[in-house]
Amino acid sequence: MFRPTRTVEKALRRFGFARIAGVDEAGRGCLAGPVVAAAVVLDPARRIPGLGDSKQLTALQRARAYDLITRDAEAWAVGEASAAEIDAVNIREASFRAMQRAVYALLPLPDFVLVDAFLIPALPIAQRGIVHGDALCASIAAASILAKVTRDRLMLECHAADPRYGYDRHKGYATAEHLAAVARYGCSALHRRTFRQPTLFDASDTMDTPA
């Protein structure tokens, strides 16, 4: 499997940027639950093995990488937007809000932000969008792992509170099991009532899976 590198981060440091955050989100393509974003500032002096596109890693690999990232990164933070907020503003805007919250939770703030595919609107920080950034750029890959693991753990908590929908297995994605549960029990407070599969993002973004 192809591994992301720190090539972009190193180039930015040569231009004088010192605190470079990678940003990504998880859960945009779900029928239920929040969209969760993470921002990670990697420590240039510490290598973190096992980084990669979270969609291409196993749950065990993600869990191991999560522990290393939260231990060895210079800084990290997460942000989210609830299902109700997604319904209120649409999934695209809610995803950007979750990213903004993750970035603003970093103290001190980064001086440059690298984002998977798109720029974050209204963010008063220099930034660059990198297509397939979660597979190419180490800090974005780290953020993708943190966002995915954080969201999966939230959905496990939701399953413990209400096991009818099987969130422990599909994490809110539109599997046949999930759709059958909605048909049987109706929507819960976690469900996105106005949700439609996103179409304004790179095609790879809709490939986020419950695995």
Describe this structure as you would to a colleague.
The chain is α/β, with parallel strands linked by helices and 211 residues long. It has one domain (7-207): Ribonuclease H-like superfamily/Ribonuclease H (Nucleotidyltransferase, domain 5). The protein is 40% helix and 14% strand. It is built from eight helices and five strands. It has a five-stranded mixed β-sheet. The radius of gyration is 17 Å and the shape is globular.
What kind of sheet is the major sheet? 5 strands, mixed
According to CATH, what is the topology? Nucleotidyltransferase, domain 5
How is the largest sheet built, in terms of strand order?
A: 3-2-1-4-5
User: What is the number of E strands?
Assistant: 5
Q: What is the averaged pLDDT score? A: 92
CATH homologous superfamily - what is it?
Ribonuclease H-like superfamily/Ribonuclease H
Structural class: alpha/beta
Shape: globular
Kindly estimate the percentage of residues that lie in beta strands according to DSSP.
Answer: 5-15%
What is the subunit organization of this protein?
Answer: single chain
Number of domains: 1
Quick one: CATH class?
Alpha Beta
- Rg calculated over all Cα atoms: 17 Å
Any low-confidence stretches, pLDDT <50, length ≥5?
A: 197-207
Instruction: Note the total helix count.
Output: 8
**Secondary-structure element string:** HEEHEHHEEHHHH
Distance between the termini: 17 Å
CATH architecture: 2-Layer Sandwich
Helix content: 40-55%
